[in-house]
């Protein structure tokens, strides 16, 4: 009796450890675990994760509000210094690029704070829908999603550290620019991860439809316990209605996901396009032949942490 009870108590603990194992997801929560951890560190995940639901955490929401207020204060201070020429980036192109970076970054933080409630509803819907997926689907997705989130974060942190090592006296500017880049990256990855899960849901519905089609075409015995063909057809109709309902739910969730993350994605696209435009103009507008040759061989990296926002500036 004692050994049986002891075995029963130890089993959930081992199950929970396996549930959160890296690159071995078994459900939606374990699949999104690295992304949720990084968002919690950044203070943009004001939710508690229970067994089958997301709930707003009062303490984490206060932390989100605190981060929002501190960020907006420093963002306005830096923009004021850029406009009043207290911070000198050397030329007007870099100044305009840095200004756009901090303006767009402020928009992203404001959008993240305002839409924290709707995002929780999306995650709740995702948690409910994805419960129909088999563990094999999560296993395949986890290798890509976990690796992408971890390597992307590592790259952004290292990029920020490289810029900081060039001018440690401008720590506040580097930290603010790095925070904007990490926040944008993880909000975008949260959208991408949810879209990948919804794609897997659509694929599973399509596979079930193909299976039903094969049953009808080949006249296979879909349900052995049903004798009459009429009962068999009724059973197939019920299955089709169930799949239709599931498809409608997944489609509505996808639409809700697009609506809630649309502003975030638009700002990311606008910021990336602005950075690339300024970089191309600055490098090729007054480029020397040897510099153009060097740029052709240089790799194109991510533009979340751009040089103008973190470039070495001069205080007056």
Which terms would index this structure?
single chain, about 325 residues, mainly alpha, two-stranded antiparallel ribbon, 11 helices, disordered N terminus, Gustatory receptor, 7TM_chemorcpt, transducer, receptor
Quaternary assembly: single chain
- Helix-strand pattern: HHHEEHEHHHHHHHE
**Strands, count:** 4
Q: Overall mean pLDDT score?
A: 79
Question: What percent strand?
Answer: under 5%
Strand arrangement in the largest pleated sheet: 1-2
Globular, elongated, flat, extended or rod-shaped: what is the shape? elongated
The Cα radius of gyration reads 25 Å
- Discrete helix count: 11
Terminal-residue CA separation: 78 Å
Which stretches are poorly predicted, pLDDT < 50 over at least 5 residues? 1-18, 291-312
User: How many domains?
Assistant: 1
Q: Which class of secondary structure composition applies to the elements?
A: mainly alpha
What does this structure look like?
By secondary structure, the chain is mainly α. The protein has one domain. Helix content is 77%, strand content 3%. The strands form 2 sheets. The protein has a two-stranded antiparallel sheet. The longest helix has 57 residues, at 229-285. The chain is elongated. The N and C termini lie far apart (78 Å).
Describe the SSE topology:
Layout: H1 2-19, H2 28-31, H3 33-42, E1 47-49, E2 54-56, H4 58-83, E3 87-88, H5 92-114, H6 116-129, H7 135-166, H8 171-218, H9 229-285, H10 289-296, H11 307-310, E4 314-315
Antiparallel strand pairs: 1-2, 3-4
Helix pairs in contact: 3-7, 3-8, 4-5, 5-8, 5-9, 6-9, 7-8, 8-9
